[in-house]
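Dear colleague,

As promised, here are the two records you asked about, laid out in our usual form so they can be pasted straight into your sheet.

NAME FIELD: protein one
SEQUENCE, THEN STRUCTURE:
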Amino acid sequence: MSLRLRLALWYGLLAGLMLVLVMLLTYALHTRGHYDDLDHTLVSATQHVAQEVEASSASTGTSVVTTPPAPGLVLRVYDADGRLVAASPNAALAPEAVPWTLLAGPSVPPFDPLVGLVPSFMPSHPEPGVLGVAIGPSGTRWRLYALPLRDGRALLAATSLDRVDTATRLFRHLVPLLAGLGTMGALLASYLLAGHAIRPVATLTETADAIARSRDFARRVPDPQRRDELGRLAATLNTMLASLHQAYQAQQRFVADASHELRAPLTAIQANLEFVRRHPDLPATERDIAIAEASREASRLARLVADLLVLARADAGLPLRRWRMELDRLLLEAFAEARQLARGQRLEITRLEPAMITGDPDRIKQLVLILLDNAIKYTPDGGRITLELRRSSTHAEILVHDTGIGIAPEDLPHVFDRFYRADPARSRDPAGSGLGLAIARWIVEQHDGQITIESSPGVGTTVSVRLPLGP
């Protein structure tokens, strides 16, 4: 069952139920009002006649009964033995009834039990009169009211219920018909409104399905131009598509760059090995040169694969090992290894404050080696590279400063991108992969830290890493 049909059924049936309840309430109030009004008129007229009968002599009282005060009202006077004493001229129209029998029981309502559920808005008739219902000679219903008189007699008044019964019967037949038509109308209106309301959902679904089939993440779902849940859903889907598009483009660039970087050392290794295989009489010196070049390219390939594995670990969201460590001691170890890589540059530690942090020692050491290795690569012979460790109340800050070639302002925002290398960097380090700073940023982020770079071309570069202190 579709969402549109479910919504239509829910809201249509709910509206139909409310309509049925309203119709039943209207019927009950309408019917109760008619019968209560008739009872009030009957009781008032009968009490008026009873007062005149009690205040008059026997002959005068009989004349009062023979001239009813209201048209259609039938009056009869009975003595204490139940014999008819006097009656109005139209008494034959009303059913025969003994007032003492009515007075012996409670009042009987003239309507069905459903109508009796609603309260009466008419004042209740005073005791000791009793109301009843009887069937007349013609088969119509009559409303009876028996009232005892002070002299021992009883007055019985009757009025036909035919007019009220006919009106209420017609209304009772109209209630289910109107309720059914109203429910059908509510269902139809709910179906149309549900279709209009969820039309944007159908559009979003079709667009999302088309994007999934075509893999065109640059496409966007249409904006319904509404400030409701559907509008927010469209905006959220477009934001998600933008993120997917960006990630998809980054993945494509990464695959293309990785393929290119892997192809170069593999080609060099294959060419040198093929050269040695095809020339078995090659002089030892040339053979050694070819093998050494293949070995260098194999080492470069191993480093590149290791860096790619680190980034794959980063993309997979795998957590790092964490424990307390002495950051200053780890910096000394990394500094000692980096000095072996220097080619005429002066490496110095200008400041080293003790600091304890929580993290992965291997990754932190890799971070420092990446920064020092970059500084060595892009600093000419005779240049100066300094390593500094500062500690504040909440953070430890690692500073690596060099007097190298620097980074151009247009390249600075991209230095953390994977495989990104500025033109001067390519000329100074053709064997580089452009993954070092991307790995460095991932390590810093995994330790809840921050890394920033400030650089001026021809002056030098300063890299700052802020890491939170351990407990």
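NAME FIELD: protein two
SEQUENCE, THEN STRUCTURE:
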Amino acid sequence: MEIINKKARWIPVLAPLLLLVQACLMQEDWEVPSSECVSELSPNITLREVLDSYQGSTQEILDDWVMEAYVISSDETGNFFNTLHLQDRIADPEGGIQVEFEFRDSHLFFPPGQKVFLKLKGLFLGKSKGIFKLGSSYTSFGNLQVGRIPKHAVGNHVLKACEAPMALRPKTVAIPDLTSQPANTLVRLENLEFAQELLDSTYAQSEVPTLRRLLDCEDREISLMTSGYSDFYEKTLPAGMGPITAVYYPEGGKALLVVRSEEDLDLTAERCEELITEFTSDSLIFSELADPDNNSAARYVELFYAGDQPLSLNGWHIDRYTNDNTERGSSIDLSDITVNSGQFLLIASNAAVFQEIYGTAPDIEGGLNSPADSNGDDNLVLVDPFGTIIDIFGIIGEDGSGTAHEFEDGRAFRKEDINKANPVFDPSEWEVFNDTGASGTVNQPQRAPQDFTPGSRG
């Protein structure tokens, strides 16, 4: 009974304490930063200077630094979650950063354009997948990482300035210029549209961050990243073209855009006209094929362009059919080349040897066993982006040995008055030198460099 009586005497004491603890826990669950603003703080370091202080690994900030910045993100639609994205200026920012914190509905306290002060002492600065972050810390596999600032501590570090939110002025940039733009800053890109194959797709898959491919009117590409928890993830992508305002987020070296809501996309204009990037022409020809008798490493193929206008070789390639094979043995892609009127295109089997022997650098190195490395009894074809044979040397399926298209230890030179390609081999268009002299060719092996004329039809 005594024991029971002792326990009974504790009940009135414990009950209020338990209620107090429960109340404290519930209060902490809902604790948010004060809605009061501050006007007396003076920044003593810039965001750019903070970023420049990073030394390659997550580090605690020990100095009494105060930094000012402007909010550019919003979690109102759920596409941002427990993060606050900041840049150092309303316009033309020099730096941006991501603050990790446990704070839902932060847009009610920190709307876009809101000036904030950050008391940095005790926070950790780190970098993950190319993105600078501020927050608390945790350890993962022995490595210190930036984590979320606990909600009860947010008000100690992130303070709202008394100034009313200002209108952000995102920098208008083109896709190729994004790499020079600071990460985690607000940008605007004009004339964007979702790829044709995505027009029936939604912004994201449920509960999964999803990338959707965007193109500009010059077919340059960037991706939009959308959270599968956002309010609009199930909505169908807009089918038109127009500007997008977004946070530039180059995660892991991949340029990404993250919008705050659907309203950041204004894709209502007519889609871009189809961009034609592949062209054909019969003015690009084989002009010389070389297999020097004294140096097989000095082999090359020369093309000549007789057209009037520049020609993009996007999709063009040279194929080699070795000996009597009817299957392509090797190929050289010419897609990165644009040729101008009267230009030669020199393709060496070995660039270093070519430059040493002929005194000039080739445009392309084909490599060993490539079309530029033929030993004179193979067949070469020039193919346009549409799979059409534009020009040819030899007859596919016929070994060149002892024929009118053998240039072993020699040279095949296109006559100077031939400026149009021919998809059917015509020996009368060529002067062929070799070590046999068969079928109307010249039995006269050629030596490099004196018997060859790379870059000239003379």
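A couple of things worth noting about protein two: Helices lie at 2-29, 47-52, 151-157, 351-358. The chain is about 10% helix and 30% strand.

Best,
R.
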